[in-house]
Design a protein that fits this description.
By secondary structure, the chain is an alpha/beta fold. The protein has 11 helices and 9 strands. Helix 1 packs antiparallel against helix 2 and helix 4 packs across helix 6.
Length: 408
């Protein structure tokens, strides 16, 4: 059987196969769902700025209405009573005109910005989630009883594959992430987590045509970070566990899975100045967002991840894909912000099963829809940046496979 990770080309440095040939990516019929259309918002600097300006004008109109009403309060008629009486008589007509202008601004924004309407309301009405503090408290109490406590972690390179084609679509990135996610499903207490890192070099030509000088290719990397694979409260060998879930919510750099991924990235040659695309599902999406704050040249692609609570720290271009009925992205009680460098895509799935809503297999189908459907300017721009991140479709590189472990 051919290894689905590397088409039979992997080795551990001594000519041996990586031992993962038994892994076969399967999408069962219940995961194949009909597309119901995508809703996206963010990513267009002009639209974000225009929406902000309209909201500012509406706020100014509200303030003006409040000021005018304050001028005709009973106690104020002792000062310039004639002018106050004239204002009081004309005020209803003035307020009606202000109300029409304000309503017109709101209707114009709602009709033009379609997808932004819901998110704008959620941002105005939402409350700050206490989840980071709650997560820290739960982890602290749990560690006293031998559960949910962080440990040391390690990352070991166990396989290398050559001639890996560059991923050139959101669907390809999702398919490779699904493959890694299935590889790390826990079947025993001593099973490690798996991580895949790809390395590509650009430009393809080593000589600059204009100057004739040699060009040192700059490497770019793609890191595939899976979601939670061990749901036991007591930490096992695989760091993609419940303990890391709580730690990732608590603070950046604390979760065992995040520390293990960073260790693997360092071994792969990724530095703070490297160009790196971080692709993550669920917990892996949170880890990707946390890690992106340390790499100036990073981009982020997430599936089913709660990122609203760390939005103030994310500066990397980010594409977040969510299912409307997936409960996990809503855990932080905050929608993703509407920013010029952040696009959120939502899609409804017909399945009533919340587990199916969250599984990476379902997100693979949505990723294919993101590739195939017409997109607005924000999504179109970021989709192109991420799809072409690793170079042309003809570009090839290497894939490194790591075992990530919690240490006793």
């Amino acid at each position: 059987m051919t290894c689905t990770h590397c088409n039979g080309g992997c080795s551990n440095g001594v000519g041996e196969k990586c031992g993962r040939a038994q892994l076969v990516v399967e999408v069962t019929p219940r995961h194949i769902v009909a597309s119901s259309g995508l809703l996206s918002y963010g990513g267009d600097a002009q639209i974000v700025a225009t929406r902000g300006e309209i909201d500012r004008v509406i706020a100014e109109l509200n303030g003006l209405e409040g000021w005018l009403r304050a001028q005709v309060e009973l106690q104020d008629f002792a000062v310039e009573p004639v002018l106050r009486v004239r204002l009081a008589l004309e005020l209803p007509l003035i307020l009606e005109k202000l109300s029409r202008i304000r309503d017109a601004c709101g209707h114009a924004a709602d009709s033009y910005f379609a997808g932004e309407v819901e998110i704008s309301r959620e941002l105005r009405e939402g409350t700050i989630s206490p989840l980071p503090a709650i997560s820290s408290s739960i982890a602290a109490v749990g560690s006293m009883f031998g559960v949910l406590g962080e440990t040391k972690v390690s990352a070991d390179l166990v396989g290398v594959a050559s001639s890996i084609t560059a991923p050139n679509s959101i669907g390809t990135l999702a398919e490779r992430l699904l493959s890694e996610s299935q590889a790390g499903v826990v079947t025993s207490d001593d099973q490690p987590g798996w991580l895949r890192i790809e390395k590509f070099l650009e430009p393809a030509s080593p000589v600059n045509g204009a100057t004739g000088s040699m060009v040192i290719p700059e490497a770019c990397y793609v890191v595939y970070i899976p979601g939670t694979q061990n749901w036991a409260p007591k930490p096992g060998t695989n760091p993609f566990d419940m303990t890391s879930n709580l730690s990732a919510f608590s603070k950046t750099g604390f979760a065992g899975s995040e520390r293990a991924v960073l260790a693997a990235m360092q071994q792969a040659g990724i530095s703070a100045d490297s160009q790196v695309l971080l692709v993550g599902h669920s917990q892996g999406g949170m880890i990707a967002a946390n890690i992106s704050t340390r790499f100036a040249g990073s981009k982020v692609l997430t599936f089913g991840a709660p990122l609203g609570q760390v939005s103030d720290r994310i500066i990397a271009p980010t594409l977040s894909i969510e299912h409307s009925d997936d409960p996990v992205p809503k855990l932080d009680s905050r929608p993703n912000p509407m920013k010029s460098n952040w696009v959120t895509v939502r899609q409804s799935l017909p399945s009533p099963d919340p587990i199916a809503q969250h599984e990476m297999a379902g997100y693979l189908q949505t990723a294919l829809d993101v590739d195939s459907q017409a997109a607005d300017s924000g999504l179109g721009k970021l989709r192109k940046e991420i799809s072409e991140f690793s170079g042309t479709p003809e570009a090839t590189g290497q894939a490194y496979f790591f075992e990530l472990r919690r240490e006793p």
